[in-house]
Design a protein that fits this description.
CATH topology of the largest domain: Aminopeptidase
Strand order of the largest sheet: 1-2-3-4-5-6-13-7-12-11-10-9-8
Strand content: 25-35%
Helix content: 25-40%
CATH superfamily of the largest domain: Gcn5-related N-acetyltransferase (GNAT)
Number of helices: 8
Structural class: alpha+beta
Shape: elongated
Distance between the termini: 26 Å
Number of strands: 13
């Protein structure tokens, strides 16, 4: 079905919602750039990448037909695929623009079509993750008025051989997640956004229930891995962990404290708890992602043995109602 026609440096460029066969061709474009000819076979390396992506797609609710193709005649010039993520978020997947900068205009049009699809399906936020050197995809995001949220540092370490003691101030206690404590977690997360250095622009872009839904969807949710930090009857922070079975990893999904809880050794105690859980439960790996501008958090994580393994730039945009 044709949804758009126009001139963007190509002749008769149009947007198409793909058939299943076209969607598979679109996935080849995702891996390897524009088609030279519609019937031309890609290399075995590209076919292996497509198969690997489809296997990964089984874990992220991938529907290849949520793809918008930018076509010139019968040839796929570019594409944009969006995948729904819990918390009314749409994650965009784009072809390798840094290797094929000439398809940037076509890709921008495909992205607009994908964002319109996502908004119609109820998404309120769209995000793209790109490599820091990829200035071409960054230009596409900027053209579409997306916000450069953060350079995320992905960090990992192995669990320690022995579980350390969790040392928290005597006036502080931890409570696990349950329907009865849900409101306390809401308060703690919202309170931790005040003067936060961790992706500060994101805190105003989503409703708190969408945030919590997104956090719960990381890995296999275990309420015992979610802790709210209480001082008296007041929630002053939280530690949200996730069991990621595919990697046998314990992931720090979110660690946040309200301003009055910072600088009191609480974050240090929570990280001791992370290491203890990783050791006792026998995880193979411990992981987290942090805003590269969050110097105190980076210092804390390095102190606890986490080392950087990758970087990605997060671009986001509010969409929908």
């Amino acid at each position: 079905m044709v949804h758009f026609s126009g001139q963007f440096g190509f002749s008769a460029l149009r947007l198409v919602r793909p058939t299943l066969e076209e969607a598979h061709r679109g996935l080849r474009c995702l891996m390897d750039g524009p088609e030279k000819e519609p019937a031309m076979r890609r290399s075995s390396r590209v076919e292996e990448q497509v198969a690997s992506f489809l296997a990964y797609g089984e874990t992220i609710r991938l529907d290849p037909r949520r793809m918008v193709l930018a076509m010139e005649g019968e040839r796929i010039i570019s594409m944009a695929l969006w995948v729904p993520s819990p918390g009314r978020t749409a994650v965009l997947f784009l072809p390798p623009l840094k290797d094929h900068p000439a398809i940037l205009p076509a890709t921008q049009v495909a992205i607009e079509g994908a964002i319109a699809d996502a908004a119609a399906a109820g998404a309120v936020l769209v995000q793209v993750m790109i490599d820091p050197p990829d200035t071409v995809t960054a230009a596409a995001c900027q053209h579409l008025n997306m916000i450069r949220l953060a350079v995320l540092h992905y960090m990992e370490r192995r669990p320690p051989p022995n579980a350390p003691a969790t040392q928290l101030p005597p006036e502080v206690r931890l409570e696990s997640y349950s329907p009865a404590t849900h409101a306390l977690f809401r308060q703690a997360i919202l309170g931790s956004y005040e003067d936060t250095l961790d992706c500060p622009a994101l805190s105003s872009m989503r409703e708190i229930e969408d945030v919590m839904t997104g956090h719960r969807a990381v890995g296999a949710f275990d309420p015992n891995l979610w802790s709210v930090v209480m001082e008296g009857e007041k929630p002053i922070g939280c530690l949200l962990l996730a069991d990621v079975p595919a990697r046998r990893a314990l992931d720090v999904v979110y660690l946040g404290l309200t301003p009055q809880a910072r600088g009191r050794g609480i974050a240090r105690g929570l990280m001791q708890r992370v290491l203890a859980i990783g050791c006792r439960r026998g995880f193979d790996l411990m992981s987290l992602a942090v805003d590269g501008q969050n110097a105190p958090a980076l210092k804390l994580y390095r102190r606890f043995g986490y080392g950087q393994v990758a970087q990605r730039v997060a671009w986001v945009k509010s969409i929908g109602g």
